[in-house]
């Protein structure tokens, strides 16, 4: 039987028996295609695996191989110190010890696992079951070194080193000691261990914002071993180096006083939360910044169990209706737009009434906080007259006020709804609802009463304390808005200094100077005139300009109190802000604190120039 082709398997049969007729036939082309495809797929699979192992997993397997044959000892580089503007440290590093597990060594003898864990638990006071669970859940192929415990006592470190458990390493370390926990807690923040289980990083405050320059460079010491674990050589691979010191604009002594005086004042009122800020209006340098209550940044986890949200930084993250501290911005807008002249007067008999088209016998009444008599822009700011600002803001009778659109225009002009760019994480942003936004959010149309409310800093607008003082500082200095900053420079371990921040002009509106001078005069009268809301500060020897504010919240059941004040009035070098949440008597509660803080500054800083 003749065949025209030969199957693949027949090609591999033995030669035909002698005498049998045989016929050599060519292989079917499909057989070559099949073999070629099979060989190509196999080669592609091998190549792709090689690429994966060398490029995607190369570093890992290389490190793993090195770890199996060599022992790398990391020498921690100390974190840089944070200092105030006078070079006084706010934190220090204390020698400590940490326990690590070298997973390849620890798991090399599985039969000894239980014995080693039991001994390790006994020496460290760690729970054996928790220790077992943590070790068994560790992917030893991906985690060659596992942090077991930080900041152990010297006794534990000595005992562990004496025990010499295979795979257990006690490393020299340090822990951060914050010298004034609570007082500087929101400013400095704290550090912690990152997800890598070994990398210490800044987690909040300046520690987080300036983590990179503060970090020390770890040193690396390698012990080379053969396959049996015998030591062949020892070598210093990388030198250890400390991180750079961070130099701040903060006046630590002043902040300590400010915080403690605030705490004393707020406790006397049986109140529990607020904030304080001090800034140099000429540069944007922050002299003091705290949120109350503070927390112990040596043990930040404890704050989770404390009342009044101590981890919440009210100074930069809190958003509040500013109350009457918004009036200087409205006054500047009204004067600039020609709504009023500085000497124009309006009568405040304690309220104004707007006709009610639905109930003519029941007009809508908008209250002043007391009858003020005739007021102009100077006395209206000094007395904090609501009626004056209702009129210039929302209009009344034949007076056409700014209206909500132009009030919003000056909200934007003074950047009140924007972040300041301060060098701290988690800065929040304020809001000012337009009529369209309010109606969309609430289903209620904007009315003149809403314009009256925003004219006195209440209702549908809010901002952060850092934003409020930063924008008001531009009024204080005559029209230059600077970006606030805290980190001034860094100094490396060789003494080389590098500037981090310097005064940065964000906006210049010195062409507003005549108008700002009038606004500043109203704030100056708030202290100098016997009818001023801040007149209690008049006995302090340098001139002070100030504005108080009370903002009703939660359907008028609570009041937040504000104080803004700068000195000297003509060329201010300090402005302070005080916020008391849920104040008992409104802004009057801020005055005693402001008095003592500004007096301390005068006696301990200004007078000593």
How does this structure look, described?
It is a single chain. By secondary structure, the protein is α+β, with helices and mostly antiparallel strands. Helix content is 33%, strand content 23%. It folds into 2 domains: 71-245, Penicillin-binding protein 2a (Domain 2); 252-260 and 270-608, Beta-lactamase. It is built from 19 helices and 25 strands. It has a 5-stranded antiparallel sheet, sandwiched between helices. Strands 2-10-20-21 form a 4-stranded mixed sheet, with no helix packed on it. It has a 3-stranded antiparallel sheet with strand order 1-8-9. The termini are far apart.
State the share of residues found in helices, binned by percent.
25-40%
Strand order of the largest sheet: 12-11-25-24-23
Strand content: 15-25%
Count every helix, treating DSSP H or I runs of 4 or more residues as helices. Answer: 19
Q: Give the overall pLDDT as a whole number.
A: 87
- CATH architecture label name of the largest domain: 3-Layer(aba) Sandwich
Shape: elongated
Q: C-alpha Rg, in Å?
A: 36 Å
Low-pLDDT stretches: 1-6, 11-17
How many β-strand runs?
A: 25
User: What would CATH call the homologous superfamily of the largest domain?
Assistant: DD-peptidase/beta-lactamase superfamily
- CATH topology of the largest domain, what is it called? Beta-lactamase
Give the C-level CATH assignment of the largest domain.
Answer: Alpha Beta
Domains counted in the coordinates: how many? 2
Largest sheet properties? 5 strands, antiparallel
Which structural class fits the helix and strand makeup? Answer: alpha+beta
Distance between the termini: 121 Å
């Amino acid at each position: 039987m003749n065949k025209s082709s030969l199957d693949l398997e027949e090609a591999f049969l033995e030669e035909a028996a002698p005498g049998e007729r045989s016929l050599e036939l060519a292989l079917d082309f499909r057989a070559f295609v099949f073999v070629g495809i099979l060989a190509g797929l196999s080669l592609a699979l091998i190549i792709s695996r090689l690429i994966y192992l060398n490029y995607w997993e190369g570093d890992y397997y290389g490190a793993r191989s090195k770890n199996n044959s060599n022992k790398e000892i990391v020498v921690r580089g100390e974190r840089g110190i944070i200092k105030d503007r006078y070079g006084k440290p706010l934190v220090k590093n204390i020698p400590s010890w940490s326990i690590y597990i070298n997973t390849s060594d620890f798991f090399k003898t599985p039969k000894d696992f239980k014995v080693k864990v039991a001994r390790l638990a006994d020496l460290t006071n760690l729970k054996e079951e928790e220790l077992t669970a943590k070790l068994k859940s560790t992917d030893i192929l991906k985690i060659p070194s596992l942090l077991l415990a930080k900041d152990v006592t010297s006794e534990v470190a000595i005992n562990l080193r004496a025990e010499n458990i295979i795979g257990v390493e006690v490393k020299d370390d340090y822990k951060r000691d914050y010298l004034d926990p609570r007082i500087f807690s929101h400013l400095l923040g704290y550090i912690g261990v990152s997800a890598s289980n070994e990398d210490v990083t800044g987690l909040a405050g300046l520690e987080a914002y300036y983590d990179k320059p503060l970090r020390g460079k770890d040193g690396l010491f390698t012990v080379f071993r053969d396959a049996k674990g015998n030591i062949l050589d020892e070598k210093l691979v990388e030198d250890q180096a400390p991180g750079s010191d961070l130099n701040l604009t903060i006046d630590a002594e002043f902040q300590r006083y400010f915080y403690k005086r605030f705490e004393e004042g707020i406790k006397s009122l049986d109140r529990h939360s607020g904030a304080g800020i001090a800034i140099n209006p000429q540069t944007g340098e922050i002299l003091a910044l705290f949120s109350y209550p503070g927390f112990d940044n040596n043990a930040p986890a404890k704050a989770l169990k404390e009342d009044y949200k101590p981890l919440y930084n009210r100074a930069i993250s809190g958003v509040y209706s500013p109350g009457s501290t918004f009036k200087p911005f409205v006054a500047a807008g009204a004067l600039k737009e020609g709504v009023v002249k500085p000497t124009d007067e309006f009568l405040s008999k304690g309220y104004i009434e707007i006709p009610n088209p639905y109930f003519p016998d029941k007009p809508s009444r908008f209250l002043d906080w007391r009858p003020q008599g005739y007021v102009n822009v100077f006395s209206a700011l000094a007395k904090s007259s609501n009626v004056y600002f209702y009129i210039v803001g929302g209009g009344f009778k034949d007076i056409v006020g700014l209206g909500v659109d132009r009030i919003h225009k000056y909200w934007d002009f003074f950047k009140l709804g924007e972040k300041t760019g301060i060098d701290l994480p988690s800065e929040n942003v304020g809001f000012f609802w337009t009529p369209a936004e309010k109606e969309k959010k609430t289903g209620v149309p904007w009315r003149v009463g809403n314009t009256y409310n925003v004219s006195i800093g209440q209702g549908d607008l809010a901002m952060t304390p850092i934003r409020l003082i930063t924008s008001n500082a531009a009024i204080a200095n005559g029209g230059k808005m600077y970006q606030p900053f805290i980190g001034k420079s860094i100094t490396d371990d060789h003494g080389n200094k590098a500037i981090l921040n310097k005064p940065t002009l964000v906006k210049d509106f010195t062409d507003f100077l005549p108008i700002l001078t009038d606004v500043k005069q109203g704030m100056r009268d708030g202290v100098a005139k016997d009818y001023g809301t801040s007149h209690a500060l008049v006995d302090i020897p340098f001139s002070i300009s100030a504005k108080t504010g009370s903002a009703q919240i939660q359907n008028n059941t609570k009041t937040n109190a504000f104080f803004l004040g700068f000195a000297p009035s003509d060329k201010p070098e300090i402005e302070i802000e005080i916020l008391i949440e849920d104040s008992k008597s409104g802004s009057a509660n801020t005055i005693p604190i402001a008095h003592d803080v500004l007096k301390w500054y005068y006696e301990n800083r200004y007078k000593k120039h």
